[in-house]
Write a structure and sequence with these properties.
Length: about 190
């Protein structure tokens, strides 16, 4: 079973859900997880209820969206791998510092205790500023793998980076073999 967690980078959720669909169509059994913000917030990019319905229909499983419901992922060793896509700068910083205060950070903490792959598809406006040290810290951490990422608008948003969501499946395959897909920076 693969966990697929989504955070509130709302402008990237459609691309993330497209990749979720590809994973499901490839035969993976997937457990959908959403941060509380992603689960409850309507934006100009879509309604929360539509995202929830879409994820549940694709996966055939209810969305985990509370710390309480995410906690058993670890003790029950429910996942072979966990993907966080999109992973916001906020969630990235919490993962780097060991903060567990959301469904997604709890899922990651619980999952990592089993020494299994955590795949991060980054989407943050502060990757090359406030979050650069957190990227470095997580690159050093065992069982953490990054989907290759690049600056998405170097002129207007020079600190912003986003994962190449089309490489989630390839990154997962490499991570399952204990390898970081290369190159990380595109």
């Amino acid at each position: 079973m693969i966990g697929y967690a989504m955070c509130g980078s709302f402008c990237t959720l459609e691309r993330s859900i497209d990749e979720l669909e590809l994973l499901c169509l490839s035969g993976y059994e997937v457990m959908p997880i959403m941060s509380e913000i992603c689960y409850a917030t309507d934006t100009r990019f879509g309604k929360a209820k539509d995202r929830i319905r879409q994820a549940e229909e694709l996966c055939g499983n209810a969305v985990i969206h509370t710390v309480f419901d995410a906690e058993p992922i670890g003790p029950k060793a429910l996942l072979d791998a966990l993907i966080i896509s999109p992973c916001t700068g906020n969630t990235l910083a919490k993962l780097a510092q060991g903060v567990t205060d959301s469904s997604v950070t709890m899922a990651a903490k619980a999952h990592l205790r089993n020494h299994r792959p955590l795949v991060i598809a980054l989407a943050t406006n502060d990757a090359l500023s406030a979050n650069l040290k957190n990227i470095g810290k997580l690159l050093e951490k065992k069982n953490v793998y990054f989907v290759p990422f690049a600056q998405n608008d170097p002129v207007k948003k020079p600190d912003s980076m986003i994962a190449d969501f089309s490489l989630i499946g390839d990154t997962l395959a490499e991570a399952m073999e204990g390898r970081q897909i290369q190159p990380i920076l595109k």
